[in-house]
Each structure stands twice: as structure tokens, then as C-alpha cells.
Amino acid sequence: MTLSEIAMAGLPGLPDTRQGVDKRATTEGWAERPGLSRRRKGSGGGREYSIDLLPRGARIALIERDGVFSAEIEALPGWHEKDSLTRAERDRSDAKVYALKLYEAYRRAKTLSHRDARQLFPVAWKAGTITVPGWVKAIIPSLSKKSIDSWSKIRREHGDDALGIDQRGRRAAIDTAADGKVRARLTALLAKNEFITAAQALDYLREHFPEELGDISLRSVQRARARIEEDERNTLLSLRDPDTWRSRIELSGHRMITTAGLNDLWEQDASPADVMLKGKRRHSIYMVIDVWSRRTKVIVSQTPRAQAVAALTRKALVAWGKANRIKTDQGSDFKAKAICRLMEDLQIEHELCRPYDPKGKPHVERAIRTFQHDLSICPGFIGHSVGDRKKIESRRAFAKRLGADERDLFEVDMDLAEFQAWCDEWTDLIYANREHGGLKKPAKTPALKAASWSGEVRRVDDIDALNLLIAPVPGNNGIRTVTKRGVRIDGEFYMTKAVEPGAKVLVRMDPTDLGRVMLFDPDGETFLGLGVCAPLAGEDPQQVAAEMKAAQAALEKRKRAELRKEMRQIKPRDLMNAARSQAQRKAAALLPFERPATPYSTPAMEAARQAGAALRPEPQGYTPEQREQVSAAIVAMPKTPPARPMTAREKMRWAVELEDRLAAGERVDPDEVGRLQAYQDTAEYKSWKFMIGREGRERIVG
């Protein structure tokens, strides 16, 4: 449009005279805007200006003066089962094709060039002066000159179906490079360090994937990072902030921990209290919750320690009765040997959660969170986080905060005793009578739920015995060795008459008397007696020592008397006879073999042999009468037939019986043993032995 045509149109936001429009064009530099002005081809010359230079209101007014444009567009085929595109892609393709066809109809109806139609059609589409079906308008709420050009080019080069594929969502080079390894590495970088910049990530990728990526731009890395942060947000959150991931993302089941009834399962946990007490100390709270009824108990401790866990367990036992199971985390105060021993003594099953797994005891975790939130009404509340603390500090003017004491800043007004009293009121009054979403109707509060239990409740009938079980033990888990001076604890000796020196004992301190200790056997199941430290007990050391010595002497005297009674049962020759008998039994099972010997003699021994021969009397021969008598006696002797040789079976029976006698430890003639050993080396014996092993002794030799 020329300047005169613009002035005559009387458009809103523009002068209605040519001079005014000319001044506006000169001020805004319409002629210097490339591509938005041209020389007029008609007679008279001059310049024409694109309507893109006009204010938006003026452009909309121009289009509205032409009225609402509508055109008949042929129906599109739509989506079908065998379509190569998805339903969403087909709808997007049909909408773009419809828009392009409507654009051509608009251009022809207005007799506009492509240049002018591209300027007017998007404005008319946005202004609503073109009749567009609702389904098309929903997919394409607005368009631009660039959209018309790009859609026309895609349709001309690739066909109508290509318009349905969202080119903006195509996989980038970083996503496809190295079969996805580059994207995986970039994801790992973001998980390892979420504060890394895109430029730093680009340097890393260029260093490790130079061939796969080529010359990628910083903008490509930024877009890839944005996609990864969106697509992998849950996984990245689980690595960066596991607590937030468990709280917001991780699936959780409702009442997944089931219990059999009241006192079936307790959960215990500890946490620093979000309140400051007098002395500028932030104490720790220990909480126990009965899962079935949701009732709670709280103990306040200056520092996390096992003694607080024992005190909390005692408090719940006295108030509720005995539990079947207690579940805790793996903190050192819950895993201490004193706590494990206490659970064993009370016969309570102690369950430990997996490390860093708050899901193992969700009920006490949630109860502690509720308790911490209720602390906001207490004096000395310091907030649940650093941000909360800053907000509390900022409530006071800067001048009042500057140099102010923390007690004044947070209005600290409670000591340990007052805070413990508040905790008891919270558990027994506030929380116990508050409706709990995890409890079924009609018992909607922990107090009503516990009162509805009609089963058995096992109560502790001897509180003093329970107090002794949770009594503190000295170092080294309470195990001590009794010496001649007694049991040593913290440099002091506790004398005892119940245990002899050298014995190991388990020591428990008397909570009411520093000068007395209780001694148990090492497993803690047998009470042995008391130990007394005279200086700490306020007694006369000499008198205590005398009493202990007298008791020890009486004990030793009784034991010596019993021992002497047994000693009298031992005769003087019993040991000697026992040694001889055992030696004979061992010798009977052994057969000495005589080794070949070489005659040995010395000149002195030879002379002694000759002297001995000289001393022996000469043997006297038989007289004729004696010789006749011997001959007659030999002739008169009865003739015995020669012995029949044994058969092979009889010989084997003899060998087996002799082996049985040797195995039983009986005395056997050495000659018989020698014959047996010689027979055992023969093939005949080995054959019979093989047959006995296969057929049995009774069947072979009887």
C-alpha cells in the first residue's frame, strides 16, 4: 500500500493524512526495512509498503473490512487401520494440508501474489476472519509466513504424509551418535554433576567422541540437555536427591506392613529435635510407635546413645506391655551390644532395616515428621531446615538480630525437663486422640484403636527387675575378670564374696548406689552376687575387706573339705598299678620282630667266658644200668599218630579267629602271631579274604 492508500484507509493507530503517515514512515524508517518496501509499478511511481510495517490493530482492521472468508475444501480421506501414520500424525497432516488448500483459495479469491498472501493470510487466520473447522483450529491455532513456506516445500518434495511427522521431535545427532552412547554419557555427566554447564559438557563430548559427533554446536548440547532433564527427570532425581525421590516419586503401598495385633510390632527411630533448649543445645528425640494402634512414646536425650534406647524401651514396656518384635535402623545406638543383650533378656525379636532404607520403618518416620511439625508452636523452635531458620531470623529487624544471642533470637524458654513433659503430653493427649488416616473405622484415633484390642497383653509385673536389666554396664560391654582385689571399674575395685578370682562376670551398675554393682554370669542369665566398693558405698574398707575374706575363707574351707574327702578314695598304689596295667594292654597288641644280630665280644668278655666254663662241673654220663632203664621206657611209650594237616578252609578259620583275639586285646603266643603274619602274605589268604568280603564270613568259614 502507498502512503496515500494507508491514510485514506483510516486505520486505527495511524494518522489519517498523507503527511502524517509520511512523517510516521520517516520516523520509523519504513523505507530502510529490507524486504518490506518496493517501488510502485503503476504510473506516477512512488513506493509501496508492506502491511507488516503497520501496527497489529491496523492490520486486523484491514482484514476485517473484507469480511469473513470461507471456501469449500474437498474432504480429506482421514485415518484408517492400515495407515502408515499414527492417528495423531494423520490428523496433523490433514490439518496442514487443509490450511495450505485454504491458503491457495484465499490467495486466488483475493487476487493476491504469494508475497502479499503470505502477509495477510496468517493475520486473517489469527483474527478469525477465515472460516476454519474446529478440528483444524485445534491443531493449528496460529501460523506464520515461515510455516506456509516450509509446509509447501515439504509437501512438494515429500508428499502429504511428511506433514504429519513432527520434525521438531526428530532425534538429534547427540541422541543417535555412537548408537546412543553419547546421549548415555551426557546423561551420566548430568547425574554426576548437575551444576556442569553446557559449554563444559560440549568440551567433554568433543574430547571423548570426536569422530561420532563431528562439529556440533553449543545449542545442540543445550537442547539435548533440556530433553534429558525432561525425559530422565525421575532417574536423575533418584541419584541427586534420594530423599526427595522417595518422598515424591517412589511408589508406596498403603499399610504395606501388616501386624497381628496390639504390641506385635514396634518401630523405633531417633532424630534431632527442631527446638533449642536452655544451654544452647539441640537435643535428640527417640520415638517408638506401635504399628497396629499407632500410639507413640518419646524420650529426650542430650546425645544419641544406647542408654536412651533402653530407657525408651522400658517406658513403652511399662505403659503398653511386652512387644513381640521391635524394628530399628542400623544406627550404632540401636545395634549396641547392650541393646542386643536387652532384647535377648526380654525375649523380644530385634529386626534391623537395610542400610539407608527408611521404607523399612515408615510409620515411625512419619510420626517423627508429624511431631517435628507440631514443635513449631514451642518456644525455641529453630525451623525444619536452614531456609526455615533464616525465615525465623528475618522476622526481627536487622538491628535487633545483629549481635543478638541465640536464646533471645529464638525465644528459648524450655529446659530438658519441660521439653520431656511436653513430649509426654503430645504422645498421650494430642497425638493419641488425633484422627489417623491409617486407622480403620470406627477406631479412628490411636487411643480408641488400642482400647478396641480384646486380645492378650503381657505386662511386666516386676518393675525393679526391669530396671536392673536396663541398668548401665561399664566399658568393654560390662565383661570383667575378677581379681584378688575384686572387680575393677573406672579405677575403683568392687570386692565380692560370691565369685572367685579368675572368673569372668557381666557387671551392671546399680542406678541408685554408685558403690554397688550386680554381678551376673557372662550371658546375663544367672545372678551371682553383689560387689561393693567401700569408699563409694560409704562403708569401712577394713570391715568390708574382713567380711569378704571371712566369706572367701569359709567357701575355700568347704571346698577343701569336699576335696579331701575325694582324695581319701585314692590308694597309694592306684596310680602305679594303673600305669602298669595300661602298659601291658598296649604291649599285648604289639609283636616284636627279632632282627639279625652280629656276635659281639671283647678280650675281657672272652676271658670271662673261659673262666665260667672252667667253673661248671663236667657232665656225668649214664651208667649202663641207667641207659638200659631209659631205653626200656622209650620202648614202652605209646605211639601217637602224626597230626593231620589242616585244610585251606580250616587254616582260614584259624586265621580269622586269631585276628579276632588280637583285636579284642587278648594275650596270644608270639609263635602263633608269627605264623599268622606269614600266612597273611600268601595268595591263599588274600583269595579267602576277598571271598569273605564278597560273600560274608559265615558263608565262607562258618
The total count of strands amounts to 13
Beta-strand content bin: 5-15%
At the third CATH level, what is the topology name of the largest domain?
Nucleotidyltransferase, domain 5
Tell me, what's the shape? elongated
Structural class assignment = alpha+beta
CATH superfamily of the largest domain: Ribonuclease H-like superfamily/Ribonuclease H
Strands side by side in the biggest sheet: 5-4-3-6-7
Q: What level of helicity do the residues show?
A: 40-55%
Through-space gap between termini: 138 Å
Number of domains: 6
Average pLDDT confidence is: 78
What does this structure look like?
By secondary structure, the chain is α+β, with helices and mostly antiparallel strands. The chain folds into six domains: 3-59, no CATH class; 87-169; 173-248; 265-378 and 414-451, Nucleotidyltransferase, domain 5, CATH 3.30.420.10; 473-563, no CATH class; 648-701, no CATH class. 50% of the residues lie in helices and 9% in strands. It is built from 33 helices and 13 strands. The strands form four sheets. A five-stranded mixed sheet has the order 5-4-3-6-7. The chain has a four-stranded antiparallel sheet with strand order 8-11-12-13. A two-stranded antiparallel ribbon has the order 1-2. Helix 4 (87-109) packs across helix 7, helix 9 runs parallel beside helix 13 (233-240) and helix 10 crosses helix 12 (218-231). The chain starts with a helix and ends with a helix. Residues 397-404 have low confidence and may be disordered.
